[in-house]
Amino acid sequence: MGIDYPEDENNEQTYFRYLTRLDLVRDYIDDKYKTLPDEELKRNAYVHSYGVGQAASLLALFRGFDEETAEMACIAGMFHDFAKYYVEDTDDHAHVSAKIAESFLKETGDFSEEEIKTITEGIYHHSDKMVDDNVPFNDIIKDADALQHYLRNPMEKYWLEKSRVKKTVEELKLNKH
Ligand SMILES: [Fe+2]
Predict the structure, then answer these.
(1) What is the DSSP letter of 36?
(2) Rounded to the nearest whole angstrom, what is the distance from the C-alpha of residue 19 to the centroid of ligand 1?
(3) CB 48 within 8 A of CB 77
(4) Among residues 31, 131, 133, 143, which one has the least CA distance to residue 76?
(5) What integer pLDDT is reported at residue 2 of this predicted model?
(6) How many angstroms separate the CA atoms of 22 and 84, rounded?
(7) What does the alpha-carbon distance between residue 145 and residue 159 come to, in Å, rounded to a whole number?
(8) 136 pLDDT more than 50
(9) Which of 21, 74, 90, 143 minimizes the number of CB atoms within 10 Å of its CB?
(10) String of b and e for 19-47 (b: at least 16 CB within 10 Å)?
């Protein structure tokens, strides 16, 4: 038994997978980031957005949520700083990112109203790191944002002084050293 890969016209097996809702989000974000003229900003935009997206899906699964919620967490993570990188002249990047995500997710027609609300609220509140709003999904996005900074280089131990990083590192039992 194994995965049955379809063959292409040369009778060669090719890797195949269905596109997911997350692919729609990645395509949208990639298309926008591709146009960023500053190479350093572009690199940071990709690394941080994908990093937080993946940290968010890891935390969602680790905390016992299902795969749909992990996908939504990844989407919120991908979008959370979108306006910071793509929209000039905004000092309100969390709220602007949430607005842009909301209109994109609605446009796809692939998300329920409740899902859009969950995702966009996670984005909207992610900058309030010191506020505990008792919404587990929002905490995933805040913690993933903090964790990604630490994971870029665990030798930068000053990140552990941030309470969210410290708490999440302890939760994941990464602090054995
Ligand atoms: Fe961030």
Answers:
(1) -
(2) 26
(3) no
(4) 143
(5) 43
(6) 21
(7) 12
(8) yes
(9) 90
(10) eebbebbbebbeeebeebeeeeeeebbbe
Contact 43, 50 (CB under 8 A): no
Q: What is the mean pLDDT of residues 128-137?
A: 86
Centre of ligand 1 to C-alpha 139, Å, is 13
- More confident site: 14 or 47: 47
Give the global pTM: 0.88
Query: What domains sit in the chain, N to C, each tagged with a CATH number?
Result: 25-171 (1.10.3210.10)
Span from the CA of 108 to the centroid of ligand 1 (angstroms)? 24
For the chain, the distance separating the N- and C-terminal CA atoms, rounded to the nearest angstrom, is 42
Tell me the C-alpha distance between 23 and 25, whole Å: 5
